[in-house]
Amino acid sequence: MDASDHFKLMQEALKYGEVALSSDEVPVAAILVDNSTKKILYRAHNMTNITLNGTAHAEFRIYDHLKCSYPKDHLEMWHNCTLYVTVEPCIMCASMLDQIGVSMIVFGCPNERFGGNGSVFDIRYKSNIKLVPGVGHREAISLLRRFYIRENERSPQNINKKKRTLKLDEFPQFKYSQFITLPEFIDIWGKDAEQIYLENDFLEFEESGKLILPRKVDTDKKRLKK
């Protein structure tokens, strides 16, 4: 999978996150893409609210679909696929993905409470899953904020959220070092993107999917005038 594909395919996952949001589900969505053909094999979003099943995460729903559709080959299929998911997989899902050996995980924002690929634990014991973090970071956070500001009628405690303000213009920095090393980051995005990693800046893309690189500052202009 080329680096220029990551933005476009993450946009597909984010669009499906909107579907989850409109269904009153936690807007975490994922798509599984064949590395050779770049074809989307399946897309899913969390359905824990509708199913009342705490394991009905997007990643497990994709797993269940492949298992039913390709009972003999479903495990081998993962080895040549990339998973695009709007939020870092939780510990449960990260463990499953590690065991089946998906080749790559591209995710948007960290899962600071339950993340299994760096935020809380880094569960990559049995495989060499390649991580590409931070693609669609702000968009993924925006989806979650739009969901959690709503009133939850099923909540055991009536928490009034009407006075809360939805903030869609302020986002935390992305700490890439929690998930990958600088050499790994450069291997994905190139040496010219190094500053993004070092400054925990956001990944910005052109519509074509090309990464927008930091502006190169003329060092002569930074010198103090005598």
Automatic annotation (TrEMBL):
CDD domains: nucleoside_deaminase. Keywords: Hydrolase. The keyword Methyltransferase does not apply. InterPro entries: CMP_dCMP_dom, Cytidine_deaminase-like. One of its GO terms (cellular component) is cytoplasm. This is CMP/dCMP-type deaminase domain-containing protein. GO terms for biological process: tRNA wobble adenosine to inosine editing. The keyword NAD does not apply. It comes from the Eukaryota. Gene3D superfamilies: Cytidine Deaminase, domain 2 (3.40.140.10). Residues 4-128 form the CMP/dCMP-type deaminase domain. GO terms for molecular function: metal ion binding; tRNA-specific adenosine-34 deaminase activity.
